[in-house]
Each structure stands twice: as structure tokens, then as C-alpha cells.
Design brief:
With about 180 residues, the protein is mainly alpha-helical. It is built from 6 helices and 2 strands; from the N terminus they run H-H-H-H-H-E-E-H. It starts with a helix and ends with a helix.
Length: about 180
Amino acid sequence: MNDKKLVSDLLTKSLEDLNNKTKDLSQLELVYQPKNGGWSIINCLEHMAVTEKFLLNAIRETIKARSVMPNLNLSKNDASILIKIGDRANKVESSKEFCPSIDNKNRTHLDFLDEIESNRQETINEFNSTQVDLRKKAMPFAFWDKVDLHQMFLVIGSHMVRHTLQIESVLNEIKTN
């Protein structure tokens, strides 16, 4: 499988999986607070909406502002990015700007799903339409000194996988109670 197809499939499939897991949930399921103190499902949806928009904007800014690095080759890190971002055993504390906010308390899960869908379509469009060699531009990113922009699209897809798994965990906890 080529690099471009991997990213494209990840971006598409992760959104499909999220929609399949969340579109028909009840209000009780959406707001259930896990016993471990983690986020509710609606909190996860809010987080995904905010985070993807931020990451896509960071990619766009890097495309505009950073120069091409012809000798850059970070592709050896692709697998570790997919694993580390998607791995729920690796707990990560989100920065405040990506955490659920009281400002969104009146929004529904369908509002967040619409925003996530819109963000994802923008992400896919940016990935498919950019003329820049994404492997030759880089930016700093948590866990790695820097990642290339191709890898940032892997991060976006893996981030959704991570939180879809979190949602599944919450739903499994609800079923056992």
C-alpha cells in the first residue's frame, strides 16, 4: 500500500468508524462519566472537533511558512506514530485548549459530529489537493522532535482512532453496569 493511500484510507475509515459508533447513542450514553474519571462520549466528540481543526490549521501554516527541506526523511517514524497516537494504553493529558469547555455545554453530539465531518472533509481535501511534497516539510510535535506533514495527517487519523476506542471503552463500561 502506498503512503498516500494509507493516509486516505485512515482518514476515511476512522470517520466511518466514529459515525457508526456514535450516531445513534442515547443522551444517557453520551453523558455517562466513566468510573476512571475519563471523558464522557460527548466530551470525546468535542475534543476531536477542536483538535482536528487546530492540527489542520497548523499543517496549513507550516505549508505556507516553512521552507522545503530536500534532505528530510522521517518516514521511518510512520509506524511508531500510528501505534503511539492510537494506543489507548499510552495515557496523554490534553492541553487546556483541547479539553471540553463550558462554552459548548448546549451543543449536541450531532452538532459535534457535523463539525467533525466538516473538519474531516477539509482535512481530506487539503491532503488530496496540496501540491507541496508533504515529506519535505516538518514541524515540531509532541513525542517526536519533529514530524513531516505527511505524518501530521497520520496523527489526525490516528487521533480519531484513539478516541473512537475510548468511546468503545465507555460504551463497554455502560453495558457492564
